[in-house]
Amino acid sequence: GANPELVKAMEGGMTGVVADLKCGEGPTVALRFDMDANDINEAQDEKHRPYSEGFASQNPGVMHACGHDGHAAMGLGVAEILAGMKDDLKGTIRLIFEPGEEGSRGARAMVEAGAVDGVDYILGAHLGFKANKTGQLICGTGEFLATTKLDVTYTGVPAHAGAAPHEGRNALLAAASATLNLHAISRHGAGASRITVGVLNAGQGRNVIPPNAVFKMETRGITSEIDEYMAREARRIIEHTAKMYEVDYEIKLVGGTKSGESSPEMIQRIRKVAEEMGTFTEIIDYASFGATEDFSHFMTVVQNNGGIGSYIMIGSDLAAGHHDFYFDFDEKSLALGMELMVKMVVDLIG
Fold it and tell me: How much of the chain exceeds pLDDT 90, in percent?
């Protein structure tokens, strides 16, 4: 049902949007809104409000189970309000609508394309997560896990498994051996780390020495340095396992993001604005995220260039947890989030 002209414009995966509202000389404020969905079949029964009220996903295997549709809605509302206030602002407002946050596939590419060049302040927000009651607000978030996502291909030589197994080069065994040894990487003494091989596909038939294997993996670290250590060790194991089994290998980087910490001075500005609003029932300065969020890549790049930023969590009553097929949020939280974002822009460049 989408506009065919818009679909054509997005050929090749070009679904991100960056828009500048220029309000004269002054600093640049960036607002990031993610808009992708999850690979989940949405619940199809009457106790699920989106289904019973007719606004559930129409696409099998695709569901907004993390609230990104709410984030995009807030972004559009904020854009409309700020456009009407243009004469009262001095500077530039950059709206970043990011695809591919799930899997950490959006921010790195958008940063490389210049999405945060010249940005002085950056804000991102998420419905729910650690703020799971409507009216709650968490002004800043930290301890984002840095991550590296890799797809690995081993290519061997097929052979008859009964008559000539010695002529083959077994890619399946190479992938299996690599998987076990990847999970044996020594953990870093400076902080938490993770490694997961989540998908492994190999082989062609029970009587053929497997010439092909593909696995999909990720590393994570409480800091970018720890994640880099994990990823470096992973690449070493993948390479040396290929040599051991005499197979060719290819490693493709398919996603990744830096770790990050919200700027203390931005957290305090958010608290001040939120208190002046008088509509939040509970305001919390800081929470540890303890997982990966692509926004940390945007924020860290801005901070490294001399800017400041924060990741806000806007409280919402939830029908089920994030990435659950019964996920649904309280839409009252959208208005609270929009008002906070608009008033933060006014506070920064009004």
Answer: 94
Segments of the chain with pLDDT less than 50? none
- The answer to whether 334 touches 70, Cβ cutoff 8 Å, is yes
CB atoms within 10 A of CB 13: 10
Quick: pLDDT tens for 96-139. Answer: 999 999 988 899 999 999 999 999 999 999 999 999 999 999 99
> Is the Cβ–Cβ distance between 211 and 168 less than 8 Å?
yes
Asked if residues 296 and 142 have their Cβ atoms less than 8 Å apart, the reply is no
CA 11/CA 45 separation, integer angstroms: 34
